[in-house]
From TrEMBL:
It holds the Pfam family Retrotran_gag_2. This is Retrotransposon gag domain-containing protein. PANTHER family: PTHR47481, RETROTRANSPOSON GAG DOMAIN-CONTAINING PROTEIN. It comes from the Eukaryota. The lineage of its organism: Eukaryota, Viridiplantae, Streptophyta, Embryophyta, Tracheophyta.
Length: 174
């Protein structure tokens, strides 16, 4: 069995023939690399979660360890409770595009909630997602697009709707 020493030449020596000091060095490096790597991955994953879902920060501030934080998060978000599903459905009904919000931001916010519902086992039909998106738009400014989408025989895909709304947003800005 060979162990890697952190040297510029990347020297390998058989562990059995290593001196006691060399063995301690190898074990210390392995321990530190594993621990620091694990710590980096944990902090990185928590950082991503905190960036994506800032409301969870108050939930985990009193956790005494990362294990406790993950248990709190799992207990709060992992079980598809009826209340959680209703809350997400209510959020969907409340979405409206504000004048200072881009179409991309608006649609991303809706997509996040739709994906959360799908994770909880409540998949939405594309037509229902389109209705949520269109109902939250300014009915005067976006009337031509809304009428065109409602007049289609087949439902429009999320990406195609996004593209059409971006183009319309650009034409409104001119």
């Amino acid at each position: 069995m060979y162990y890697h020493f952190h040297t510029p030449i990347c020297a390998y020596i058989p562990f059995a023939r290593a001196t006691t000091e060399q063995r301690r060095h190898v074990v210390a490096i392995a321990y530190n690399d594993d621990f620091l790597g694990l710590l980096r991955r944990l902090l990185s994953s928590l950082q991503v979660i905190f960036l994506v879902v800032p409301p969870i920060i108050p939930l985990v501030t009193n956790a005494s360890s990362s294990h406790d934080a993950w248990k709190i998060l799992a207990g709060t978000y992992a079980s598809p409770s009826r209340g959680h599903i209703k809350q997400l459905q209510h959020r969907l009904k409340q979405f409206t595009k504000t004048p200072n919000q881009s179409i991309t931001e608006y649609m991303q916010n809706i997509k996040i909630v739709v994906d959360e519902l799908a994770i909880l086992g409540k998949n939405m039909d594309q037509e229902d997602v389109n209705d949520v998106i269109l109902n939250g738009l300014d009915q005067v400014s976006y009337k031509p697009i809304i009428d065109a989408i409602h007049g289609r025989d087949n439902p429009i895909s999320f990406n195609e709707l996004h593209e059409k709304l971006i183009n319309h947003e650009l034409s409104l800005a001119q």
